[in-house]
Design brief:
The protein has 2 domains: about 40 residues, no CATH class; about 350 residues, no CATH class. It contains 13 helices and 16 strands. The chain is elongated, with a radius of gyration of 28 Å. Helices cover about 30% and strands about 15% of the residues. It starts with 6 loop residues before the first helix and ends with a helix. It has an 8-stranded mixed sheet with strand order 8-7-16-14-15-13-11-12. Strands 3-4-5-6 form a 4-stranded antiparallel sheet, with no helix packed on it. Strands 1-2 form a two-stranded antiparallel ribbon. α5 packs parallel to α6.
């Protein structure tokens, strides 16, 4: 059968269309391969970051080769983790993604709420009674009580760490071989699980973390301090400083339904303390609430807030205290703290703050020890080379060491500070108040604290931690240090 005269042009047009489709498909494949190969080459050639300013942590290192690691698969897994965790421009890519997602999340008026449900979180009434245990009658502890030590990890099974303290810029994560109890719940790690509200604009932008404490946790904290006082006796003054956070001062009234009251729990602790002196950090900061006492973009307070709290303590303790004008002021511009990494809210990234700290003018030396009070190494009180995004780490550098600061103070007293990371900012302001300052973090201490206080001639024992650590989480650290 012969084709019609009109069929020829249609066939040619169909063939041209097919050729054009093949050309377009080829161009598409070529472009895709070019982009893929370019990105792959960039991932291999471009410099890989070692530290994430966004996440405030050191990134995965390339694994060391060994035949055993190769055989059990850990070496190849380590390589995968390295390439995944250290992608070039990882923080910049995250920032771009956070900018695109700025319109996600629950909004109320001009406020953005992260991790907060609507209707408000309803929590049961706190009915835990105060802890009123009898006074301790056993003889003073004179050494590690091995029979009382719970199964908490390396103590009793591994030898103490013998490496000297690190004196270079330190990462925010504790090492894997930390002190006993390092595998237990860390109150500060739980902070990011609470809801966060970001409000304000420009230089008034602020992130506020909601607070969920309990009377039961507060009572347990007070009871533990009472036991320390009972064992240490009249020769040592024991102090409680519960440090409030931004939610106590800057949360508008209309959002109070999303949080509990830190002040209520701090007030609840005071009558429970038995011959333990309360330091009213809440009142000291309330009087200065219009000053930059608490950071806007981080979960910590600002050094200025720590100064006013330290001043209140010095007044209560009757010890010398240097005026702020005698300190050297240091400003670090462009600071964006942990609240950005917690929320990914680009509003915080776009409105950095100035991190200001103060260096004392009197003479002092700082020595670091491991958690068994071994291997002393003289170093710096201020780790001024840390990256701008980790500015709060300028104090003491890390939490998992014991620091001893010897000063030229006219007061011969010895102050031992038991703290979480909030307490770090207090330490520089005590250099004019005590001849010796000993600093331990309750999460990283492997000795009996009562015995340690006696051996070091401690005159004042100050527990300084934020309300999240003191009133929101019942944890065994304080009691373990007392009984081990």
């Amino acid at each position: 059968m012969n084709e019609s005269p009109a069929a020829g042009p249609r066939i040619r047009q169909h063939n041209r269309k097919q050729r054009m489709q093949r050309v377009i498909a080829l161009i598409g494949v070529t472009v895709f391969l070019a982009v893929f190969l370019t990105i792959s080459a960039a991932m291999l050639i471009l410099k890989r970051p070692a530290f994430s300013d966004l996440e405030k942590r050191a990134l995965t290192e390339f694994p060391s080769f060994s035949f055993s690691a190769l055989l059990d698969g850990s070496y190849t897994q380590g390589i995968i983790r390295y390439f995944t965790d250290t992608a070039p421009y990882r923080d910049e890519i995250h920032d771009a993604g956070n900018g695109l997602s700025d319109y996600t999340g629950f909004r109320l008026d001009d406020v953005k709420m992260h991790g907060i449900s609507e209707p408000p979180v309803i929590r049961p009434e706190d009915t835990a009674p105060p802890v009123t245990e009898p006074a301790v009658t056993e003889p003073p502890v004179t050494g590690p009580a091995e029979t009382d030590l719970p199964e908490t990890g390396p103590v009793g099974t591994d030898a103490p760490e013998t490496e000297p303290p690190v004196t270079e810029p330190l990462v925010t994560e504790p090492p894997e071989t930390q002190s006993a109890g390092g595998d237990k719940e860390d109150p500060e790690e739980k902070l990011r699980e609470n809801g966060i509200i970001v409000l304000g604009s420009g230089q008034n932008t602020r992130a506020i973390m909601m607070y969920y404490g309990s009377e039961g946790a507060t009572a347990a904290y007070a009871a533990s301090l009472n036991r320390y006082k009972q064992q240490l006796g009249s020769g040592v003054r024991v102090w409680s400083m519960i440090i409030p956070t931004a939610v106590s001062y800057y949360l508008p009234e209309k959002y109070q339904k999303y949080t509990f009251s830190q002040k209520a729990h701090i007030d609840y602790s005071v009558p429970l303390l038995q011959d333990v002196k309360n330091v009213d950090a809440y009142g000291a900061l309330l009087a200065r609430v219009n000053e930059p006492i608490i950071t806007r973009t981080d979960h910590h307070w600002a050094p200025l807030g720590a100064y006013y709290a330290a001043e209140r303590f010095a007044q209560d303790a009757g010890v010398p205290f240097a005026p702020l004008s005698s300190y050297q002021r240091v400003d670090r511009e462009g600071y964006v703290g942990t609240m950005y990494s917690y929320t990914g809210d680009i509003k915080l990234k776009n409105n950095p703050e100035t991190f200001t700290y103060y260096k004392p003018s009197n003479s002092y030396t700082t020595t670091y020890y491991n958690t068994y009070f071994q291997n002393p190494q003289v170093s710096n009180l201020f780790f001024e080379w840390v990256d701008i995004g980790y500015s709060y780490g300028v104090f003491l550098g890390t939490d998992n060491q014991i620091a001893v600061i010897d000063t030229d103070s006219s007061n011969d007293g010895v102050l031992l500070v038991v703290k979480d990371s909030y307490g770090n900012a207090l330490i520089p302001f005590f250099t004019g108040s005590f001849k010796r300052i000993i600093v331990i973090d309750y999460r990283y201490f492997d000795l009996n604290l009562v015995t340690f206080c006696r051996e070091q001639g401690v005159t004042d024992l100050l527990f300084a931690a934020c309300a999240f650590s003191s009133c929101a989480v019942e944890h065994p650290y304080l009691e373990e240090m007392r009984t081990r």
